[in-house]
Structure formats: structure tokens, C-alpha cells
TrEMBL record, chain A:
<protein>
    <submittedName>
        <fullName>DNA polymerase epsilon subunit 4</fullName>
    </submittedName>
</protein>
<feature type="compositionally biased region" description="Polar residues">
    <location>
        <begin position="39"/>
        <end position="53"/>
    </location>
</feature>
<dbReference type="InterPro" id="IPR009072">
    <property type="entry name" value="Histone-fold"/>
</dbReference>
<feature type="compositionally biased region" description="Polar residues">
    <location>
        <begin position="61"/>
        <end position="75"/>
    </location>
</feature>
<feature type="compositionally biased region" description="Basic and acidic residues">
    <location>
        <begin position="19"/>
        <end position="37"/>
    </location>
</feature>
<dbReference type="GO" id="GO:0046982">
    <property type="term" value="F:protein heterodimerization activity"/>
</dbReference>
<dbReference type="GO" id="GO:0008622">
    <property type="term" value="C:epsilon DNA polymerase complex"/>
</dbReference>
<dbReference type="GO" id="GO:0006261">
    <property type="term" value="P:DNA-templated DNA replication"/>
</dbReference>
<keyword id="KW-0539">Nucleus</keyword>
Automatic annotation (TrEMBL), chain B:
<dbReference type="GO" id="GO:0006974">
    <property type="term" value="P:DNA damage response"/>
</dbReference>
<dbReference type="GO" id="GO:0008623">
    <property type="term" value="C:CHRAC"/>
</dbReference>
<dbReference type="GO" id="GO:0006272">
    <property type="term" value="P:leading strand elongation"/>
</dbReference>
<dbReference type="GO" id="GO:0008622">
    <property type="term" value="C:epsilon DNA polymerase complex"/>
</dbReference>
<dbReference type="InterPro" id="IPR003958">
    <property type="entry name" value="CBFA_NFYB_domain"/>
</dbReference>
<protein>
    <recommendedName>
        <fullName>DNA polymerase epsilon subunit 3</fullName>
    </recommendedName>
</protein>
<keyword id="KW-0539">Nucleus</keyword>
<feature type="domain" description="Transcription factor CBF/NF-Y/archaeal histone">
    <location>
        <begin position="9"/>
        <end position="72"/>
    </location>
</feature>
<dbReference type="InterPro" id="IPR051377">
    <property type="entry name" value="DNA_Pol-Epsilon_Subunit"/>
</dbReference>
Length: 165, 132
């Protein structure tokens, strides 16, 4: 009983003394994987964060991506493909666009715009479907979630019936 | 043109990565759901194209441009895509311009040079295709 109280008191003074103890603990954990410098920076920046290793990968990943003239001003989501602006192949998108019999000429910029739009579309459809996955307290998106998203969102009406394969 | 029907499918690995990027950590996608999203993406591409083609024809344009695509997206309730796309287009235009210039000055940067060489030759091929 008495020892428990003491123990609590020790940790209730955390803002002053406890921080140093925790810092040491964190350093011990982190030195196994990272530079002590990194850890010190991380703990210094947000000492209230009990797990600085969450921040570290985010801090190191931009450094890993090589600065490239092509990717200047690029979005972080594309850092895996330094030389490419699109993740989907533009040639494939052009082939799909050519299925339209009325299409005569599509400028390269138009193909690029469609490619990017399709990428955004995939991301937003996935997010929309995931709301139904989360509602069902699940972690894995099922086809049913995609169908629900499509029938719920007006702008996705064009997909109605297109996916029944 | 299209030789095999698979040439119209979008690459699965890229689709999977795009979906994963959009979702919170720890979430997953079933195979069927991923296939459905991939198919939806292809249909979306056709949908946007045919709407843009109709728009261009209305204005007596033979070539569909990025502007047509953006206008179409606005009309079809995908206006949320437009700001990000406009930004990307600027980067793309700059890249094409830089590529032309660096091609004239010979290739300097090795890593950028490789990518530039392959994609610019693709772009040239596409231009030739357009012209015919």
C-alpha cells in the first residue's frame, strides 16, 4: 500500500523528473535501431509522445527519396517513383481511351489528366468503400462495400450495373 | 492498337498500392473488392473520355485537351479532383518542357536521363500516332 503510493508519486512528478527517466528508457529502446541523435531530436520535439519511433520513419523517409529535377514540387504520395509523375501507365490509359469510337485525337496532356483523374478516382472510391467497411467494424474492404459506395454516391451512378461480372 | 484484351486492364499492383495509400493503416482489401475497384477505374476512364469527346465535338474541336478533361470532371461532379489535377498538370508541362530542353543539351543526369529517354520516346511515338 505504502510502496504503491510512493510509486505513484514518483510518476506524478513526470513533467520534471519523470521525463528524464522516460527519455533514458526510450533511448535504450531506440539505440537498437536508430542513431541516438535522431532519438534525442524526436524526444526533444515531442517529449509527451511515448513512442517517438512513430515519428522517425516519417522523418527519415523524405531524406531517402532522392531529389530529382523531375519530381520538384511533386506530391509526397509519389515519392516511390522519382522519375514518374503517374503511377498508372499512361500508355494503358491511352489504349482505354481509344475504345471510344468518337475519339479522334487525344493530346498527351489529356491522357496525363485522365491518368491522374483515374488515380484520384481509385483513391476516393477506396475511401468511400472503406466507410462501409468501418461501419461493419471490419478491416478488410469487401466487394459489398464497393457496391454500397457506388449506390450511395450520386456521381458514381455511371458505374451502376457496370460491375456485375 | 489493342492487341490483347488484357492490355485494357490496369496493373493490379499499382491499383493495390493506390488503394492502400488511401486507407488507414492496418486496413485491407479483398481480392473481389480490388477487382471491382480496378474495373470501376477502367469504366471511369472510358466515361470521362467519351464525355470529353462529346464536349470537344460540341466546340468543333477534333483534339481533346486537358482543358476538356477538367471541364468534364467539373460537370460530372468530380470537381474535387480538379485542384489537384491542375497542379499535377503544371508539373507535367514543366517536365515535358524540361525534357525537351535537356534533350537538346544532351543527357546529363543519369537517373533522370534513363526515364526521360524511355518516356520521351514514348511521347514521340504517341505524337506520331496523333498526327496520323
Amino acid at each position: 500500500m505504502a510502496s504503491e503510493d510512493l510509486f505513484r508519486n514518483e510518476y506524478s512528478e513526470e513533467p520534471d523528473l519523470g521525463q528524464d527517466i522516460r527519455k533514458d528508457e526510450e533511448m535504450n529502446i531506440e539505440t537498437a535501431e536508430h542513431d541516438t541523435n535522431d532519438v534525442e531530436q524526436a524526444t526533444g520535439q515531442n517529449s509527451t509522445n511515448s513512442s517517438p519511433n512513430v515519428d522517425l520513419p516519417a522523418a527519415t523517409s523524405p531524406a531517402q527519396t532522392k531529389p530529382n529535377a523531375v519530381t520538384n514540387g511533386n506530391k509526397p504520395s509519389e515519392h516511390e517513383h522519382d522519375a514518374k509523375l503517374t503511377q498508372l501507365p499512361m500508355a494503358r490509359i491511352r489504349n482505354i481511351m481509344k475504345l471510344d469510337p468518337d475519339l479522334q485525337i487525344a493530346s498527351n496532356e489529356a491522357v496525363f489528366a485522365v491518368t491522374k483523374a483515374v488515380e484520384l478516382f481509385i483513391e476516393s472510391l477506396a475511401r468511400e468503400a472503406y466507410t462501409y467497411t468501418a461501419q461493419a467494424k471490419k478491416k478488410t474492404i469487401q466487394k459489398r462495400d464497393v457496391d454500397l459506395a457506388i449506390s450511395a454516391v450520386d456521381s458514381l451512378m455511371f458505374l451502376d450495373g457496370a460491375l456485375n461480372f | 492498337m489493342v492487341e490483347r484484351i488484357e492490355d485494357l486492364n490496369l496493373p493490379n499492383a499499382v491499383i493495390a498500392r493506390l488503394i492502400k495509400e488511401a486507407l488507414p493503416e492496418g486496413s485491407n482489401v479483398s481480392k473481389e473488392a480490388r477487382a471491382a475497384i480496378a474495373k470501376a477505374a477502367s469504366v471511369f476512364a472510358i466515361f470521362i473520355t467519351s464525355s470529353s469527346t462529346a464536349l470537344a465535338h460540341k466546340q468543333n474541336h477534333r483534339t481533346i485537351t486537358a482543358k476538356d478533361i477538367l471541364q468534364t470532371l467539373n460537370e460530372l461532379d468530380f470537381e474535387s479532383f480538379v485542384p489537384s489535377l491542375t497542379q499535377d498538370l503544371e508539373v507535367y508541362r514543366k517536365m515535358v518542357k524540361d525534357k525537351k530542353e535537356s534533350k537538346a543539351n544532351n543527357k546529363k543526369d543519369v537517373s533522370a536521363g534513363d526515364a526521360a529517354a524511355s518516356s520521351s520516346s514514348a511521347a514521340v511515338a504517341a505524337d506520331n500516332e496523333d498526327a496520323t
